């Protein structure tokens, strides 16, 4: 880490960032590469599930992860989310049976009512909703380098950070652009 800037997201959003980063694209390592890996990861994150994870839940977890990666990429220029992304988020929220309850103190809580992995995935989407409400969501990004796409929390003053600091991707992207320009010039 060259800049000394923490890439961690605030509070409950950090879990979302960690979920996206269960796939290390550059190294080809997937921490939730099979159903047991997914169960272990969700369990270690404190989300359950109590029992084994089914194949359909496994597939939905991977769809959610890539939808969140795309959504975080869209935060770079605040472009509109593809319908494919909102469809996945809607589906996870629906399956998780997210419910709201109000308190006498004029407060409210949202919880995922579904059990198992679908409930756990719903908890991840809930944290996205919280982050959108809190205004922190636009700073959750993935590295602009297409071979990296590591999720990071952009703490730059203007919210214009493009690359994760972990792998010096900014420098490497500039070197690649320079090489491309040279190749074009030749
Ligand atoms: Zn990177």
Walk me through this protein's architecture.
By secondary structure, the protein is mainly alpha-helical. It has helices at 14-20, 35-44, 55-74, 83-95, 116-134, 169-185; strands spanning 23-24, 29-30, 98-102, 108-112, 140-142, 151-153. Helices cover 46% and strands 11% of the residues. The strands form three sheets. A two-stranded antiparallel sheet has the order 1-2. A two-stranded antiparallel ribbon has the order 3-4. The protein has a two-stranded antiparallel sheet with strand order 5-6. Strand 1 and strand 2 form a beta hairpin. It is globular, with a radius of gyration of 18 Å. Mean pLDDT is 91; it is low at 1-5. The structure holds zinc ion. Zinc ion binds next to loops.
Q: For this structure, what is the CATH homologous superfamily?
A: Jann2411-like domain
Largest beta-sheet details: 2 strands, antiparallel
From N to C, what is the helix and strand string? HEEHHHEEHEEH
* Portion in strands: 5-15%
Query: What is the CATH architecture descriptor?
Result: Orthogonal Bundle
Query: What is the average of the pLDDT values?
Result: 91
Poorly predicted runs of 5 or more residues = 1-5
Provide the number of structural domains.
1
CATH topology: Jann2411-like fold
Bound molecules: zinc ion
Helix share bin: 40-55%
């Amino acid at each position: 880490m060259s800049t000394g800037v923490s890439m961690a997201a605030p509070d409950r959003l950090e879990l979302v960032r960690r979920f996206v980063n269960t796939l290390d694209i550059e190294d080809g390592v997937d921490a939730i590469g099979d159903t047991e890996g997914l169960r272990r990861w969700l369990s270690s994150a404190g989300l359950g599930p109590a029992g084994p994870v089914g194949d359909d839940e496994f597939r939905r977890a991977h769809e959610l992860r890539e939808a969140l990666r795309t959504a975080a990429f869209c935060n770079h220029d605040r472009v509109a989310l593809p319908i494919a992304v909102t469809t996945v988020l809607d589906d996870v929220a629906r399956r998780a049976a997210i419910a709201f309850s109000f308190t006498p103190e004029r407060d409210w809580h949202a919880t995922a009512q579904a059990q198992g992995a679908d409930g756990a995935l719903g908890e991840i989407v809930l944290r996205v909703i919280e982050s959108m409400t809190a205004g922190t969501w636009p700073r959750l990004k993935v590295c602009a380098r297409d071979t990296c796409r590591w999720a990071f929390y952009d703490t730059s003053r203007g919210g214009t950070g493009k690359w994760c600091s972990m792998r010096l991707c900014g420098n490497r992207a500039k070197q690649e652009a320079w090489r491309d320009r040279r190749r074009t010039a030749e």
